[in-house]
């Protein structure tokens, strides 16, 4: 029972480092410096040149969401063809987002019909200005995430437990890759903070890993499909920083689907620590945006 409670706690966090990571773990996985230090204006100048932009947020930081909107506004000012890809909405509700953009639903109906408050639970007003901006400018909104009930089941019973119906909104199981050794180690360090509660259960960790990777792969598949189908669009991805750091989560899996080096991508973290040592020999992100 303790193991199941642990996995459910970690699986409930759609931003891995928000609920499952202590400050010590964040420091141990932080790269000492991004490749270069830039002002926020210089970062904006670089982002407008990228095809896919990842904005790794802390979900309960209003400052992060204000910065996301500022970045989206600037990118849209220079290119009206911007799509916003959102971890906050789950894939079965894409049609609801489409109806909202078409003016067929009110904002209140959008929140209700996407089951936002039950499935995401961070205050709607954190994201509402971004959604309103998309509606005003007719920017596509992409529902990225795996249904909550599917990730919870994987976290407790494994991928092999899923039924055909439960697999409808995720990639084929053959595409859910858990073979990145560095990513595995990073998640293991997070998991081991709770090792006493988990009693060192290796099966439980594997299911935790599968659930995290399932989020990454499901979101990556939707992004890659949109990029392929809409070559004239830029995509801005809003997701928890745990899915973005070092490129391990979503970015590497999008790149795998599109072809390495075929699409210019950039990643941004907001006020993430960059002054502690790291065993990971790669930048934590392309840019650090300072509030």
Helix and strand content put the structural class at: alpha/beta
Major sheet: size, sense and barrel closure? 6 strands, parallel
Task: State Rg.
Answer: 18 Å
CATH class categorisation: Alpha Beta
Order of helices and strands: HHHHEHEHHHHEHHHHEHEE
CATH architecture: 3-Layer(aba) Sandwich
Specify the overall morphology. globular
Mean pLDDT: 87
The total of helices stands at 14
What attributes characterize this protein structure?
alpha/beta; 12% strand; single chain; Rossmann fold; disordered N terminus
Q: Can you give a write-up of this model?
A:
The chain is of the alpha/beta class and 291 residues long. It has one domain: 3-Layer(aba) Sandwich (Rossmann fold), CATH 3.40.50. The chain is built from 14 helices and six strands. The protein has helices at residues 2-12, 16-19, 23-28, 40-47, 62-78, 94-101, 107-113, 116-119, 124-137, 148-157, 181-192, 195-198, 202-229, 250-258; strands spanning 52-57, 82-90, 141-145, 234-240, 265-270, 287-289. The N and C termini lie far apart (42 Å).
